[in-house]
Structures
1.
Amino acid sequence: LVRCDATKQSSIQRIVRRFSPDYIYYLAAQSSVRQAWLKPVETIQVNVIGGVYLLETLRRLNSKARVLIFSSGTTYGATYLSGKSLDEEACFKPKDPYSVSKMAIDFLARLYAHVFGLRVSVVRLANLTGPGQSTLFSVSNFASQIAKMETSPRSIHIIEVGNLSAKRDYLDIRDGIRALYLAMKYGRPGEAYNIASGTSRALKDILQGLIDLSELKGNEINIRRKDSLVPKDEIPRIKLDSSKFRKLTGWRPKIKFRQTLKDLLDEWRKYWRQAK
């Protein structure tokens, strides 16, 4: 592991010159929609400027590295109001600073591939979740709260939530990692690929699934909405069409969503039991 400040071009140049990488996954990002409203400048600096620094470095060095730039399914934004599953040709209508930043680096990466011949492709990801995820994100936050409750003797517990009616396409991180490997191997320069499960799930159903898997009874848990957890101008529904990527690579999700929730809950159980 080598530290690199993605907001400083000299830092990125130093790393690329030192290692002359054959494969680059640009994962540096401020990746929370809610945080993007709180820190829009930081979000743009890392997600856009940092990505451009990388692209410029590769251009100047005439690099032949294969590069994967990480965009997001949220770039389609208000286009989701059509109610259809969206493929890669759907219109971008971002609704928050995070999605705007991802739209920008998405466009720029593909331009650098077409204009300068860089071997860059783009992946537009659904919501990844599973063991290891930060509590900045709803599903892991729910699992952490429930696992912590299981270690407490209280008769009534409260879960704080945001908007439970929002629907998202959730993909297990382990299926996601397989997809990213295949995207790097088979992705064509200048092309973008949706990577998603193809199923849209409401947060209220996911929370209920975690409660069903818990050691607590349903009547022991009270759910309380907290307005600070609701993103501004939230996208009500996200569902991606990943058939282009599946046809290219043969990839399919393998892990059932219930297993994803169980593994996430088990990880937080281990964490809170060790913390006691």
2.
Amino acid sequence: METMKKELVTRLANKEAVFYSLLSACTREPYVECDEETFDDKVMLFFEEQEAKEMASALAEKKVPVTVMKIASPQMLVFFTSLFTMGVNGVQVTMGKESLIIQIDEIVKRREPETMPDGTVWVENSQLHLTAIYFAQELRKPAQPDTKERLKELQEEMDAHFQKSSFLFALEKEGQGTPVITLKDGKKYQPVFTDAVEFSRFNREGKFKAVVVEADKLGKVLDKEAQGVILNMTGVNLPLMVARIPGKKA
């Protein structure tokens, strides 16, 4: 165990080192599993590309679609930090035939809300994000005998987290317009985001500013053409219906 931790630290300190992880084809985010023994919500990390490919092949046999992604050492801090907002608490490191789950807070320390400047609004819905990841991974892979029941359980859990959440809502910097996404079926949705990381992935060109909207207020601010919201559209990309509240301005 100590050998593997030391190897991880050594590689993280080497700017030329590279790591490999698995990207879910269902979410466009790191593939997440709940460990059967420890119940850690974990992602997988490999030092060798071939080992990552072997794991991807093993998952493919289980009808779990993933691809191997290469991560340069200087990018690992961003990678680990993003896992916090995803609700992931562990990383399973594989070296040869050995693997070890390391808690992410043993590797990097996150910045807590109390340390932020006065007036900073902290929006992070890690449990909703995590449940949405599990839901999307289950929904978009080939159906299994227990898929329907599993989706029902995850839907109920996701709904409960959704109702308690506050979201980042995109507004145009020039004017008060909001982006509206049209899906293949012609229905329109407004994007909302669980955290600043997801908003920044969407807002790469800096065209939008973020405002905070609580779940029970979404029906008041929803665009008149929208059926609902689409959660983290550059990630899990889940369309969710929202009940419109009477009295919303057109």
